Amino acid sequence: MNPGDRVRVDRGTATYEGVLMPSTTADHLVVKLDGGYNVGVDRTDANVDVLETDSYDVESAQDGDSESEITFEDDLPTIALISTGGTIASTVDYRTGAVTAQFDAEDVLRAVPELAGRANYRGRVVANILSENMTPDVWTDLAEAVHEEIDKGADGVVVMHGTDTMQYTAAALSFTLDTPVPVVFTGSQRSADRPSSDNVMNAVCAVEAAKAEHSEVLVCMHETESDDTCALHRGTRVRKNHTSRRDAFETVGAEPLGEVEWESGEVSFRREVADRDAVELDIDADLATDVELVKFVPGRSAETLDLAADASGLVLEGTGLGHVNTEWIEKIEALVDDGTTVVMTSQCLEGRVCDRVYDTGRDLLEAGVVEAGDTLPATAYVKLMWALSNVESVEETIRRPIAGELQERSVPWT
Question: Which long-range contacts (CB under 8 A, 24 or more apart) does 33-38 make?
């Protein structure tokens, strides 16, 4: 028996039937029941019957060069599955109950048999880390890996990523890659051992989105708390707005670009998207890592800005229309004079900065601050890192949209 097989396990008076999952110990079997629960069964005195043998055989992506290929049908599109870790690539140690990130890309296929038959898959591992351990260096590695997969003929790419910092990485790929095919990020708010896990639905919907006719960098996650649709968010306009809800991700300042229906797998778009093959494949993956993101709060000393003294870029999260305490302005002007690009964003979730309304704003503009419109602070941080390494006019680039991050108008929507 192998992970992915449908089995019936009898032990004592208990009977469990479901899909055999990868196990973290030699002493236990892990079975995903039809109701969604995972159960760990002590192998001692357990009788296992294989009811259905899975149709594919995989080798671990941890062997060799950490790449592999799984083919189901020749007439299906090829989707590259790239793993970076996170909850969607986590499993449970049934000795301790701890959840750890240790799946490789093929382990995800074993854990989500529903992916079988939807595409031909190539799997590779770029990183095996939890979301909080993501770094700009990994963003660069990931962009290069996605570029390689598309160059080798992938019809779409799905990136498995931890949810806590997914919006940063999605933004990074939005700026570093010109992609002619879909690149879809997905993750899981709840690990596979929980009955309410969203890993299967999110992964399947992401694959369907990666097969669709567009060339956007998207985040694909539950649209509601129910298992009905996944929303498709533009990678530069998305934000995680809840710590644990399955529908934690939202598009800020607009509705999502589209959705994927869980039952049918149908992909539909609500707004205009870039066509498949609209651009030639290209990559500019260099990032300036000496960029700081600082949130202004009442009472915070202007000395806070000293951490950006040697930085090439600084993004400020100002209040309202883009304000900080007037005592900060002198230090900001000194930073600009020393060659630091200072970009202003707003802490507000909706709307855009406009430093021409109040005296403080006009003083900030005179000090050399660059307005970022309604660009989200996290996205502005990544955009500035990219701009400093790849364009001649950084200030002009911050003021115009590159990857859908800056909307022409900020209007209410429901």
Answer: 35/195, 36/195, 36/196, 36/197, 37/193, 37/195, 38/92, 38/192, 38/193
CATH of domain 291-398: 3.40.50.40
Catalytic residue among 78, 84, 91, 163: 163
For residues 319 and 156, give the distance between their C-alpha atoms in angstroms, rounded to a whole number. 40
List pLDDT tens digits, range 253-297.
999 999 999 989 999 999 999 999 999 999 999 999 999 999 999
- In the chain, where does the domain assigned CATH 3.40.50.40 lie? 291-398
What dihedral do alpha carbons 263, 55, 109, 78 form, nearest 10°? -80
> pLDDT tens digits for 349-362?
999 998 777 788 89
The architecture (CATH level 2) of 67-283 comes to 3-Layer(aba) Sandwich (3.40)
Name the residue among 129, 98, 88, 113 with its Cα closest to residue 24: 98
Is residue 87 flagged as an active site residue?
yes
pLDDT digits (tens, 9 = 90+) for 326-343: 999 999 999 999 999 999
| Residue at token pair 């021409």 | 356
Q: What pTM did the predictor assign?
A: 0.80
- C-alpha radius of gyration, the chain, whole number: 23
- Cα separation, 148 vs 315, whole angstroms: 31
Fold of 6-52: SH3 type barrels. (2.30.30)
Q: Which of 141, 155, 164, 284 is catalytic?
A: 164
Residue intervals of the chain classified under CATH 3.40.50.1170 are 67-283
Catalytic residue among 78, 84, 87, 340: 87
Known active-site residue 163: yes
The one catalytic residue among 32, 240, 331, 383: 240
- What's the rounded Cα separation, in Å, for the pair 81 and 146? 9
